[in-house]
């Protein structure tokens, strides 16, 4: 789950088992693309572009962001949730369900 | 619906009735915020931040993008769809339903 | 939109242009199937059936109900919304957007 | 996860840890209500009821079914997933993610 805080470390939480370099690179690439698409939508709005085309682009951004969430949730289940359950901290299950609820809104 | 193409204009479609300056400014502000949030997620991934916190941020981006889609779809219905129906082009209704389907995925 | 109330008619609203017999039959068939699936889930719960199998059945019910909503929303747009816009009652557009919002939750 | 098959038992899977009587009663009550609502929609279609009212009823059914899925998924995580992880069968995590994906469609 979260690594113990070292001296002087900020209070924000960190993963005990870091994400693989490969997952990080994939996620960063997808986030960059989503940012690019959002900048594209900004330009379309400036250019008074037709609603259907703007909405199609926004739908693509939404599913790109959702895909990243799915990847990170799956990885969270495989690492943090498994580790915490094995360590006897079942509270991680309720937290995971809360993330699933938000994820499925 | 879409304005007739002037000489030399690109083939992409434009709105016959432009969005108000107020709606454009609101949408641009929301898109900027979503881009900022996505950049925030990039930094969280670099910083090995805990999954729950990253997923919470991503859920916020998703609902921000969805809110923009909703605003643009509502405005599309009030302008393009009404205009086209009044002009006898009921085809705009099927296009609107296709946008609704994608919007509700 | 809604037919004018005849003497002694209940206050509930009715469609001005009735749904075709074909659409009604299709919707009734789908609703019957969804009811059958829900009764199937009731039996699975009684039988202590494994969660994955029960959740798969519930997901099928949810998409069946969603499909019926989509069919009725599309038909609503093609009949009520078009009629009301042609009659100058643009208020129907805001009502349609409210239905879309609920439909896309 | 699933209880071992006894002689003559059907091939379908059963939960190792049965759902509490309380959860079962709650789920059955909600399923009965959803079935009642679907029967209500059938009557509305027969009665040519206005689209907005029918769609509102269908949206209520969809969220009722979703709520049941959420309850069963949460219970699945607290029992089957925890048990299997403790027994060293991490495959249950991928199955849980597949259920989450379907649940969030």
From TrEMBL, chains A, B, C, D:
Cell membrane keyword on record: no
Keyword annotations of the record: Copper
Record Gene3D superfamilies: Metal-sensitive repressor, helix protomer (1.20.58.1000)
GO biological process terms, semicolon-separated: negative regulation of DNA-templated transcription
Stored InterPro entries: Metal_Tscrpt_repr, Metal_Tscrpt_repr_sf
Domain of life of the organism encoding this protein: Bacteria
Gene Ontology MF annotations: DNA binding; metal ion binding
Family that this chain belongs to: Belongs to the CsoR family.
Protein name: Metal-sensing transcriptional repressor
Species of origin: Adlercreutzia mucosicola
